[in-house]
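User: Can you fold this complex?
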Amino acid sequence: MMMNNDTTNNAVVVEGLTKRFGRFVAVDNVSFTVRRGEVFGFLGPNGAGKSTTIRMLCGLLEPTSGSATVGGFDVTSSPDGVKTTIGYMSQRFSLYEDLTVEQNINFYGGIYGLEGERLKERKSWAIGMAGLKGKEQQLAHSLSGGWKQRLALGCATLHEPPIVFLDEPTGGVDPVSRRNFWDLIYSLSSRGVTVFVTTHYMDEAEHCNTIGLIYSGKLTAIGSPTELKHKLDRYRIFEIRCEHPVDAMEQLQKQPWVVETSIFGSSFHASTLRDVDAFSEIERVLAQRGIALQRIEQIVPSLEDVFIHLIAEEDAKPHNNAS
Amino acid sequence: MSITLIPIVRKEFRQIRRDKRILGVLLFIPALMLLMFGYALNFDVKHTSLAVYDEDMSRTSREFARQFWNSEFFDLKYYLKSKGEINSLLDGEKVRIVLVIPSTFSKDLARGQQANVQVLVDGANSFSAATIIAYVNSIVQQYSLNVLATAIQRSSGGVTVPIDFQPRVWYNPELLSARYLVPGLIAFILMIVAVVSTSLSVVRERELGTMEQMMVSPIRPLEMILGKTIPYMVISLLASASILAVGYLLFDVEIQGSLLLLFVVTFIFLLGSLGLGLLISTVAETQQVAFMIAAVSTMLPTFILSGFVFPIRNMPIVIQAITYLIPARYFLVALRSIILKGVGVSAFWDQFLFLVLYAALTIGASSYRLRKLLY
Amino acid sequence: MKTILHIVRKEFLQFKQDRKMFAISFVAPVFQLLILGYAANLDVSDIPVVVCDMDHSRSGRDFVTRFTSTGYFRVVDYVDRLQDIDHYIDDGHASMALVIPHGFQKDLGAGRPSPVQLIADGSETTSGGIGLGYASVITSRFSQNIILESLSRRGVSALPPRVNAEFRVWYNPELKSRNFMVPGVLGLLLMVMTTILTSLAIVKEKELGTLEQLIVTPIRPRQLIIGKIAPFMLIGIVDVVLVVGVATFFFDLPLKGGFWLLFALCLIFLMTTLGLGLFVSTVSRTQQQAMMTAIFFIMMPMIFFSGFVFPIENMPRIIQYVSYAIPLRYFFVIVRGLFLKGVGIATLWPQAVALLVFGIAILSLSVLRFRKRLA
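Assistant: Here's the predicted assembly.
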């Protein structure tokens, strides 16, 4: 349970990590560090390489090239060491459906070497944390989605690991449970546990200390939520509501001073270059088209905006086929 | 109805094609098995290891002993000098038969008397022991008759052997075990292949959670059954054809009877067996249990109770009644009749009826179970 | 060590959960041994014969009695015309036909050879071959007697020389095939049960995704493998006790060797089959694959090449070499030795060692193959 002595402040150090499946590059030369005790989020669309990265860091997959150190242990040469310092929760529920809640906890506790008083203590903590009091004799199979996730988190942290990897922990869970789950993550973090989360929910990413944006296997941006949002400082973002939004978006997209448009619920966002009098220009273009403008407001960019921009920029780059 | 059927069939085919190993197994293994087993297995008891203890050591005794190992039935492994080794050779299964020729052998024959030899046989495998005894007997009788005839020739000139024994074997003139075994092997292999291929099909979806998706779709049980059966039926029929081809090419098993009848009978049997697999797959809750039920209910029972190796006639009446539950039993009779005897349906119409009943029962039962699962 | 216990406990908890698996693991072997033990019977007797007697003489009837009095043959009907034989054999009502030609008695009296036909249904080689064997012995004895009678009628007093074979059958004097078959079925049952149990053991976790959670823990491959096997070893032991009990008490099979030796050797045998199953589990991606692999590449070859019914000596050289790799082969020698021959470890040590080596090898292979990685 102890980390290797020569880590100071970094729980996870990743350098040039790459994973190839045949010709397909799932993770492309990714480098970053995660500080001890922080909540690090890996954000990206499905298929971007999040799960693959996490699996490499947990010692489940062998990297094709590059290196990573988790808790002071190298994932390639001492995966077993890595496994002693981490807890892992996979995307898909991977506990035993044909065992009860209690039986599952007892099993994993035993595997991690917990026994006697310690086991009892951790068991009641896990049950309490997951809100499963009274459900101990229920088969895991019969729990609903939210409870299953919490049980999985409990089993992953029974042995009080200093680093925890959570792969899409809130997939398919209702918003209230998602909120509660993040409270749990915070409480872990407040006790000095390093939490590495992957998610494709933008709003969850706001909760993290640091976010890494991953797209097509590449790490396109990394920083705190605020830092990332500042990346869009050279643009102005507007939220526009009007009739025929799609039509309006098409028209605006044609303008050279418009960088990006994207739909947001019943309105849409448009980002423009700074040195343009955007308000009047937008009104003009829409009027020309005969589209009635209902509302226009300049807004502070959200992470989603950041994300869309960065992806668009990535897509616009000439693709090198070296990989 | 057929509109929803086609996507199901396509999906099953695609899933099968994706798993190359399973496809390979289902298509090629049956023929491969026939190849292996057909060459390896036979009831001919040849090359039985023999030890000879000759106390006489005369030219006559050696000539007598030579009758044994000159034949293809026996291989001389040990020529013993003393009696002591006999026990350990038989105990350790190093030889199966010991021929003991007494010291008075040649003298008795010269004096015109009966000479006795002792044959010790390992009776553990009673079947081969009985066959061995029969071979030994015929060798001894042959030798004896020759001795007799020579002696008589010398004394009273010319006596012919009274019974001109003309054995004729129908359908399998050389008594090739292969001919006999091939239909049985085909029945056995096809039974296992068919049941095994469908026995995981439904329960797999349950265990992996994809069943739910099926349940909300407008699929009807019969469609699902047909959808799951058709691909495996196609594969099984292909496998059957390849088995028969191997049988013909390598074992000279020519189909004496009607090819069409053979096809129909095989089709019905496969339908029933695929249905059985499907039924198992709807009854079991996990793949492991389905596997157990499928393997335990088909492998040994079919091997032993279908009439493939052990003649049903020899079994106690109660057991004979139980063999009626073994579908391969009917199929085997039909196979033997069509392939080896070349007769028509009239010779085995009752078996045919049972096969049809089998198919109807299993498909019907699967439908019923599936309906309960889907709704 | 404690980790292993945790895994064992988990496996047992899961096993208990599944009622069906529980029942099948213990009930099926006993049930099957009862039925199959009775069914597996190669004693050839009561071969149905149809007689076409065209002579209607006393000699002819006498000849037929020689057949029926042995107990090997049973006359089902008499016909007058040769053509009538056909449908008896075609329909399977008779396996043999004995044709006594017109003028049989006269020819015998006049010292002329008489052509007696024996027609056997070759599609049933077991009874066909042995039946012919018996028939030829009976006929040549009959011939021999005729010759001797005619000689004594001619006044030849001294009986000419002939050879007589005295048979002594070891281990199984009544040549009851049951004594051979029941231990054989026992071995087969154990093999089938234990291979099934373990071959899905690891794949199931792979397919359901629980393996991922397991290999992310500090558990070592060795611990996982042992933990997975141990519970099935225990179940296998219970099965051994059950079937040996049935064999000894129900079938009156004499256990001439020591019980504890049998027990110990069964354990070693179990190690090999469990190991094989586990190995299958490590090389398969899905449970369906594991099932196919286990059935077609492990169980079927074992059934055919282990020497259960088909003697290994008769197989082509290559297959004989292959059979050395089949644990069941050694187990049969052990089981026959202990039940029928009453031998001890002094004779059986080669087999015991072979099994031990195989078991350790296959388990080590499984451990090596199972690396704690997903890819």
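The longest helix of chain A spans residues 175-190. Chain A touches chain C at residues 21, 55, 58-62, 79-80, 83-84, 86, 88, 90, 92-99, 103, 107-108, 110-113, 115, 155 (CB under 8 Å).
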